[in-house]
Each structure stands twice: as C-alpha cells, then as structure tokens.
Amino acid sequence: MGKKAVGSGQGAGCGVRGAGRKATGLRALHPAPRTLPAREYSGTELLICLVARIMENRKMAFIGTGVPMLAAALAKKHHAPGLMAVFEFGGTDPALDCLPLNVGAQQTFQRAISAVSLAEVMEAAQRGFLEYGFVGAAQIDPFGNLNTTVIGEHSRPAVRLPGSGGGCDIGALCWRTVALVPDHNPRKFVERLDFMTTAGYLDGPGARERAGLPPGSGPYRVVSNLAVMDYDGATRRMRLHSLNPGVTVEQVRQNTGFELVVPENAGRNEPPTRDELRILRREVDPRRLYI
C-alpha cells in the first residue's frame, strides 16, 4: 500500500526541476561509486555522509534540525529507502523529497505516513519504537552526557544555550543516541560538563539502569570533524572508533579535553563517494541551504 499523502505535493517548494524524482533511476546513469580527494568535498559534506552511513534501512530514527535532516534524506535516497525519519513536531516517515528548514516545517509532513503531536512522538520513543536519536551538543563528557543549556554557572552563565528541546527525551528513551559535534576541540569534549542536559552513561557502567532508564539504551556514536567515536563496553568511556580522512590519532587526542580510549585497531573513515555527493548536491540540497 502506498504512503498516505500528508501536506503538499512531492518536491513542493524545492525550486529545482526534477527534485522529486526517485534516486534509483538517476544512479543507474552513473558509473560505480568511488571516493574523492578531500579538496573535492567540504567538511560539512563529510559530516553528513558519516551520519547517513549510521542510519539503517527499516529502522526508526528521531531526526533533529540541520545535519541529521540532510543525512536522513541522503540515507533514504542512497542505501536505506525504508528508513523511517521521525520529527519532533509529529511528522513520521515523510518522503523528504524537499529539504525541511526545521523540524516543524511542512516538508516534514509531506507524503508522511502520519501527522501526530509532539506528545505522541515522545510516547513512541517511551514505548521503545525509536532505534536511533540524533542530537547536537555544546559540551560532551567521557560518558556521553551532553550539555545544551549553559556555559558557566547556571545562575550566572557566560552563555545561555537553547536548552534541551527534545534532547533529554531522546537521550533517555531512544535505544541508540548519536551525538554530532562538528567542531572537535577541548572546550566541547570536556572532563566535566557545566550542566547536564541529556543523560549518557552518567558516571559509568550500570548508572543508566540505576536511574531507571531502559536497559540496553544509551550513547552509540559521536561524529565530529576529526573522527567517529563509540564507547568501551566495560567502562562506558568514549573510545576512538575511526579517523576521518587525513586526521591522526594525535590530533584527536590533542583536541579532546579528557583521556580518550584509543584501541590499536582504530579504523579509517572513507571519504564521500561520487554517488553520495551527487545525491547530496543534486537531490537533497540543490539550493545549497546547508552545504
């Protein structure tokens, strides 16, 4: 059965001819994908591709504004057509033929399977239906706890940040939380947060469960401009998973404000392929709103 039409038509408002066409037919006109040297793609494009590769077919993912939206659209057109993107304002599994500007934009409801309320979206997460949650962070600590509230003292902050939004709920209720930190430096990767907005592994093994959070849930990946991190299964501390193109282990260490677990077999992330960049530039963001 086809998707129920919600909102306006396919590709509405994109302003690009053919933006609503399916990607599969276009890909057939191109040779097999190959990776590109760094000068042929931007740091933002690399970040989007790294996040998109985490997204799986036939899984539900809570999508935030910015990079996660582009990554979800890329994943659906590239390798995960059955990815179900869920937006905070209630759009569930829209076509994403036209890039939304925020999580409440009309494009998050276009050709969606449902249009519900924020409360119902959060209820779906609480019931355990959302495998992935993608969130940003102003600060992140070794256990994946996040701060998006204040920098400095809470009563007299140096910087007042946007706050939780849905971040606290995403970190508490989604099975796998992916944090996006585009600027990897010691001011963002800190030993101790100025304020904990979103729970990661709290203070170590078993802490989430003792706090009443779902067993088996928690931080999964951290994606930055330098590397992708995961978490050590025994200590729950952040661990280097794979390096971005041209980045060294020492660069990651120098730009992390705590002792990062570094295994001997850390991998290397592949640059964007020609196919990924073609879809991203021609179909996902042809007006260059983000890239």
Fold topology:
Elements: H1 23-27, H2 43-54, E1 60-63, H3 67-78, E2 84-87, E3 91-92, E4 114-115, H4 118-126, E5 132-136, E6 139-140, E7 146-147, E8 150-152, E9 157-160, H5 167-173, E10 176-181, H6 207-210, E11 218-224, E12 227-231, E13 238-243, H7 249-254, E14 267-268, H8 274-284
Parallel strand pairs: 1-2, 1-5, 5-10, 10-11, 13-14
Antiparallel strand pairs: 3-4, 6-7, 8-9, 11-12, 12-13
Features of the shown structure:
291 residues; alpha/beta; two-stranded antiparallel ribbon; 8 helices; 14 strands; disordered N terminus
State the gist of this model.
The chain is of the alpha/beta class and 291 residues long. It is built from eight helices and 14 strands.
Describe this structure in words.
The chain contains eight helices and 14 strands. An eight-stranded mixed sheet has the order 2-1-5-10-11-12-13-14, with helices on both faces. A two-stranded antiparallel ribbon has the order 3-4. Strands 6-7 form a two-stranded antiparallel ribbon. The longest helix is centred in the N-terminal third of the chain and has 12 residues, at 43-54. Helices cover 23% and strands 19% of the residues. The protein has a single domain (23-284), classed as Glutaconate Coenzyme A-transferase. The chain has 291 residues and is of the alpha/beta class.
